[in-house]
């Protein structure tokens, strides 16, 4: 039989194309998922560890530490045998000017060892003395300087709060310095609008002087450690733990630190691996359904040949083995092609990524590990063989003489009570678990929902399995309902198509189930993403109520800083700005009981303007007669706070506020009198504007104003960038998910084509009879197209309904505890699913209709 199988593979390879496509796509999915998860993990680790340069260990204050790393601890760390270099990480901010140009800078100190310097130079070198500085290329462009030019470091951060040794705020900060330094190097600009990435580098001596001029001590909360021998990591860690001076410090390797950061950010990349592989498994399940139908087509096409083999002495076992051997060969070949296709797709993605100008170190080539090579081939082959078991059994079930007659290979059998019991059991038990988990997750509110989510996933899987088992009971009914519409509006071809779509309920159900799985998952993810976006908008409005805040630079001559009219006008005229709110402030004396606080800043804003720019329902402005007090004042809700300015006093009821200043209602603020100044402008950007572009335009504008008018540049904080970042994550994940599930839909489309092919094969004589009595070729094509659309729509409609239900329940499980749950119906995506289903049904009918119409009626009526 081996020779017979090989002969059939050589002579009838074209018949195996459909099965090969399904297998190759499924295997390519597995390969791409494995490679993609490795790339994502490597990228995430490289991105996080980039700030650690070539360090071997990262030392930070532990949970029992009272404050930053001390000089004694750094000396003790340096003295450990095997430690090659220790570099404390320190940061500060200031304004840097050149002539009439100014820019805001966020700086770090240069590393003590070049191997521990995370900054990347574009030109020049890093500073080596107290009269040198390195700045980013963007800052150099704004200042109009180059390497060798002098710039001036002056003032302190716009909203820097100075604290004394007891942690209390100090209002009278030391006078700032104006220090002239020389630019000796330019740096790579930090990614996005991220103030954690430095835009300048100073040596420790100069940074300490600048910090002292701003009224605080320059401390380090992290130190990078380079070892003399990387193999001595554990020995150094043991010595570290044994030193009493380092008892409160926490030491980790760079790999461990990167892993901690990735886990904190994304919940561990292993979850992402499992997430992607789950969709690979879904693709393989859909592929198994398609492969099974495909081999039924193959067996049906060779039914007479297999019967002849039985007549000349082939046993049932030999016939079965021939079908399984054919499946094995096809599985290995197609899986190997799928592996190559998946690897090619992953590599092409890596070639495209650099063009996207991402600020993360993405690998340039894929790495083919033994697991990446083995798993796609193994899974594709095993799934193919398992899918061929049923057709192999059917091939041996018919007696040789009976098989020589033109009969259907797959008999139409009624579904038994056992199937119904299992279907109801899965649906009731799984649905009950999912429903209970959802109710408990909502009741738990802020508690950890992990257990409820896991229970919900299990319940959802069990209930969906029950639905798939019982699909044979309701899929034909829905197909029959759609068939009535087709019969009413489709004429004779519609009536025949409606009858044919339910002729073999089991096969129709299997094919519709392939699309049902894909449609359910696509709709579920689209619903979850839309719900998450709506819910996230509520949460982000609370966490990031202001798109961008422009804060005046600190001034030594006044207790409050002021934006100039030109700067306020510039904000209003910036492209993308939808509205602004001016924050007005004055300095008063506040009295709480027996405690008096002089030089206390109180501020207010127009309610109408705040309503335009503050996204949160909770506005910072209190009601008339109340005052929103910062935590440092020590007031409790309901306490009386007296605010006095130039002999005018107002008694106000305290309520808890945020920030450093106190907030008053417009009316109370006006009652105090005095000359208020605009210390900040909050602005809302237009929905279609890019937050990063708006922030960059503002920085460029303020730098230009500093050169023409002399206004020092204010500080810009871009909360809208964080908002946009979260929304982009949702959109990106949705695009990835839909792309992954699209593979399953493509495989399901192959399944619809295979079902129609088998239907054409089984109805070959019937089609010929219809042609003989006057059915035209166009009508025959129309009949098959309607049949394909009916099957596809059944799967899509059921999948959309199930996906919407599971999407809402899953979103409730995940987001109920966070508050702000907004259940959303993704109408656009639902319409797209149905449109794709119709297109899939029409496209899948093309090849079967060609086969049916090319066979002459006389030839089809002959008995083979």
Q: Explain this structure to me?
A:
The chain has 864 residues and is of the alpha+beta class. It folds into five domains: 207 residues, no CATH class; 204 residues, no CATH class; 52 residues, no CATH class; 218 residues, no CATH class; 170 residues, no CATH class. Helix content is 56%, strand content 16%. It has 27 helices and 22 strands. It has a six-stranded mixed barrel with strand order 3-4-11-6-10-7. Strands 15-16-20-17-19-18 form a six-stranded mixed barrel. Strand 3 and strand 4 form a beta hairpin. Helix 2 runs antiparallel to helix 22, helix 16 packs across helix 24 and helix 22 runs antiparallel to helix 24. The longest helix is centred in the last third of the chain and has 44 residues. The chain is elongated, with a radius of gyration of 36 Å. It starts with a helix and ends with a helix.
Index terms:
alpha+beta; 5 domains; 6-stranded mixed beta barrel; 27 helices
- What about the largest sheet? 6 strands, mixed, barrel
What is the helix tally? 27
Sheet-strand content, in percent, reads 15-25%
Determine the structural class based on helices, strands and strand pairing: alpha+beta
Report how far apart the termini are: 23 Å
Radius of gyration: 36 Å
The coarse silhouette is: elongated
Low-pLDDT ranges: 156-167, 169-173, 191-196, 265-271, 555-559
Q: Provide the number of structural domains.
A: 5
Strand order of the largest sheet: 3-4-11-6-10-7
Mean pLDDT: 76
Find the count of extended strands (DSSP E, 2+ residues): 22
Helix content: 55-70%
């Amino acid at each position: 039989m081996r020779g017979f199988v090989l002969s059939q593979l050589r002579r009838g390879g074209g018949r195996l194309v459909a099965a090969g496509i399904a297998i190759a796509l499924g295997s390519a999915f597995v390969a791409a998922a494995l490679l993609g998860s490795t790339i994502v993990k490597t990228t995430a680790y490289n991105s996080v560890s980039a700030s650690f340069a070539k360090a071997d260990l990262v030392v930070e204050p532990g949970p029992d530490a009272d404050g930053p790393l001390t000089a004694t601890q750094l000396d003790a760390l340096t003295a450990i045998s095997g430690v090659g270099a220790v570099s404390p990480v320190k940061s500060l901010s200031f304004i840097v000017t050149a002539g009439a140009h100014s820019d805001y800078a966020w700086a770090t100190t240069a590393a003590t060892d070049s191997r521990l310097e995370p900054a990347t130079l574009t030109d020049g070198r890093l500073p080596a003395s107290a009269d040198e500085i390195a700045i980013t290329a963007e800052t150099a462009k704004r200042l109009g300087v180059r390497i060798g030019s002098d710039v001036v470091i002056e003032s302190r951060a716009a909203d820097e709060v100075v604290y004394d040794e007891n942690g209390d705020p100090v209002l009278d900060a030391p006078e700032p310095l104006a220090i002239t330094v020389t630019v000796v190097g330019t740096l790579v600009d930090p990614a996005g609008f991220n103030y954690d990435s430095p835009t300048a580098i100073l040596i420790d001596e100069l940074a300490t002087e600048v910090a002292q001029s701003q009224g605080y001590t320059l401390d380090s909360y992290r130190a990078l450690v380079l070892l003399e021998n990387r193999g001595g990591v554990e020995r150094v860690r043991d010595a570290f733990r044994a030193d009493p001076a380092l008892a409160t410090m926490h030491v980790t390797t760079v790999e461990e630190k990167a892993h901690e950061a990735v886990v904190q950010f994304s919940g561990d990349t292993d979850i992402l691996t499992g997430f992607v592989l789950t969709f690979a498994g879904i693709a393989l399940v859909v592929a198994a359904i398609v492969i099974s139908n495909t081999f039924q087509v193959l067996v049906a096409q060779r039914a007479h040949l297999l019967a002849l083999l039985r007549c000349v002495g082939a046993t049932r076992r030999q016939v079965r083995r021939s079908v399984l051997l054919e499946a094995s060969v096809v599985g290995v070949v197609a899986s190997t092609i799928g592996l190559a296709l998946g690897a090619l797709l992953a590599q092409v993605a890596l070639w495209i990524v650099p063009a996207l100008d991402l600020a993360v170190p993405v690998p340039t080539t894929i790495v083919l590990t033994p697991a990446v090579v083995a798993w796609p081939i193994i899974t594709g082959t095993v799934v193919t063989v398992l899918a061929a078991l049923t057709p192999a059994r059917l091939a041996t079930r018919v007696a040789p003489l009976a098989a020589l007659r033109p009969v259907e290979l797959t008999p139409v059998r009624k579904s038994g009570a056992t199937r119904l019991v299992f279907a109801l059991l899965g649906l009731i038990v799984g649905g009950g678990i999912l429903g209970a988990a959802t109710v408990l997750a909502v009741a738990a509110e802020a508690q950890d929902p992990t257990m409820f989510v896991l229970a919900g996933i299990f319940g959802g899987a069990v209930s969906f399995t029950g639905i798939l088992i019982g699909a044979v009971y309701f899929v034909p009914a829905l197909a029959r309902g759609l068939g009535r519409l087709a019969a009413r509006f489709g004429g004779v071809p519609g009536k025949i198509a409606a009858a044919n779509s339910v002729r073999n309920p089991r096969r129709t159900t299997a094919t519709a189930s392939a699309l049902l799985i894909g449609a359910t998952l696509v709709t579920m993810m689209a619903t979850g993403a839309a719900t998450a976006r709506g819910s996230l908008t509520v949460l982000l409005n609370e966490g990031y109520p202001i798109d961008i805040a422009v804060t005046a630079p600190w001034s030594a001559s006044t207790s409050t800083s002021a934006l100039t009219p030109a700067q306020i006008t510039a904000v209003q005229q910036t492209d993308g700005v939808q509205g602004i709110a001016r924050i007005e402030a004055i300095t008063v004396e506040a009295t709480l009981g027996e405690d008096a606080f002089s030089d206390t800043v109180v501020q207010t804003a127009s309610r109408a303007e705040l309503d335009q720019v503050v996204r949160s329902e909770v506005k910072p402005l209190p009601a008339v007669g109340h005052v929103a007090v910062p935590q440092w004042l020590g007031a409790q809700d309901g306490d009386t706070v007296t605010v006095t300015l130039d002999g005018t006093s107002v008694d106000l009821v305290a309520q808890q506020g945020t920030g450093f200043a106190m907030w008053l209602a417009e009316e109370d603020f006006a009652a105090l009198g005095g000359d208020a100044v605009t210390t900040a402008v909050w602005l809302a950007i237009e929905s279609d504007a890019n937050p990063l572009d708006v922030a960059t335009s503002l920085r460029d504008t303020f730098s230009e104003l500093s050169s023409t008018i002399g206004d020092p540049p204010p500080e810009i904080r871009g909360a809208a960038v964080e908002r946009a970042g979260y929304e982009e994550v949702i959109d990106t994940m949705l695009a990835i998910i839909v792309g992954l599930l699209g593979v399953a839909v493509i495989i399901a489309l192959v399944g619809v084509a295979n079902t129609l092919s088998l239907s054409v094969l089984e109805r070959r004589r019937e089609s010929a009879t219809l042609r003989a009595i006057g059915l035209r070729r166009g009508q025959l094509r129309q009949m098959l197209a309607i049949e394909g659309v009916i099957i596809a729509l059944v799967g899509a409609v059921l999948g959309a309904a199930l996906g919407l239900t599971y999407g809402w329940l899953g979103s409730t499980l995940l987001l109920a505890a966070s508050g702000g749950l907004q259940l959303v119906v993704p109408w656009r995506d639902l319409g797209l699913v149905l449109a794709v289903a119709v297109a899939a049904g029409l496209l899948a009918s093309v090849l079967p209709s060609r086969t049916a119409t090319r066979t002459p009626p006389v030839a089809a009526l002959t008995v083979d």
